[in-house]
Amino acid sequence: MPAITSLGIGSGADINSIVTQLVALESRPLVQMRNAANALQTQVSSYGQLSSLFGALQTAASNLTGSSLWSKSTATSSNDTAVAVVGGSTAAAGSYSVSVQKLAANQTVVSTTGYTDASTPVGSGTLTLDIGKWDLPPMNFLPQVGRAPVTVSITATDTLQTLRDKINALGAGVNASIVTDSNGARLSLRSSSSGADNGFRLSVADGDGNNSDASGLSRFAFNPGGGSTQMEQKQAASNAEATVNGITVVSASNELSGVVDGMTLRLRKENFGSADVAVTSDRDAVKTAIQGFADAYNTLAKAIAEQTKYDPGTKVGGPLQGDSAATGLQRQLRTLLNVASGASTTFSRLSDVGLKKAFSNTDATNSANNGFARRYALLATQVLGSDGSLTTRTEGLRDRITKNGEDQATLSERVERFRARLVAQYTVLDGNLSKLNALSSYVTQQMNMLNKASNSN
Prior knowledge:
With 457 residues, this protein is an alpha+beta fold. It is 42% helix and 23% strand. The chain is built from 8 helices and 20 strands. The chain has helices spanning 15-65, 67-70, 160-170, 283-308, 324-338, 356-360, 372-384, 389-456; strands at 73-77, 83-87, 94-102, 108-111, 125-135, 140-143, 150-154, 174-181, 184-191, 199-206, 222-223, 228-229, 231-235, 240-244, 247-251, 255-256, 263-267, 275-281, 310-311, 316-317. Helix 5 runs antiparallel to helix 7 (372-384). The longest helix has 68 residues, at 389-456.
């Protein structure tokens, strides 16, 4: 509030100080309202913290109520370098002996002719690419049913590099690359997928008229059955062959994803003997979930205790000290902890817990048979709901804050009117005192003059 610097000039009295003090007295309830608003806001923040912690308890409790946790498994291999396990969390408990006779492979062929570099021209004509299976022996090719051959045209301006790029652009199941060694740059072709059915044949119609010699485009032919093979096969396309618990398994991939339900066996090494794969209950996951529930409960219980406590030494209470909603929540937490559950006849109290049902059991017809985690999940859902105690209490506090703000505005307006009235009144008073002071000075002056005149006679 700005100071009133003109008051008291006429009278000489410290009227500005008087007005300021009177306004301060009138404004005292406003200070109390502001303090009350700060206290209410602190309570809202405290309930916000409790809501967050109840949410964490709800999540931790819900983790324990789902059946997936208690049926979760973990799979391990006795020889990871030969047979690795991928997944396994949903696999049934058991043990599996796995041996690998053969790994799946991608067909790989390399040109026997080395070029000076990748920019060397390769000739002209057409290349025809087929995907299928080589029947060994005698190297008869069986194209995949329903898969048509793909042809690419090569011109006289094409180089080893553009030949590679054109083959790759086909997206036909073969990847081309250029490998440079001491003999020069060579074209390497590799099937995109492993397995015997994913081999390939490369036929050539050479622009020089000879499709089987070692010059021109015919240098990239690989067609043993057709008598034109200038590229060297480094790796034949083959299936993986393994046995799982004595059962023979053949796969185009080294990832056996459907052999054991719920996990994938990744084959890495041939003829190593056997690897033992064990699937057991994932006790660590259960332990982590239970610890998470305990931590969430303890953190919430500690927060409520801190918010509602009273320190006799400092004579200071927590923000929610004496708050019935907060103490009610504290009582509910303790009650659920100590009331026996009918979910398990062996483990009826949380202190007895050792079985799945004591935590996760859900009984829609009789809540007394709910497991402890289920009870706390339901409590959290209840208090956090739109009509739950945390929600309604927080909304009530916010309504009080809004009302407090409105009351502050009303009182501020009243104080301002009071200040204006005082200023008006003291302005008149100051003027009157100024006139009286002037009159007093005049009378004093006249009396002094009369006294001087009388003394001179």
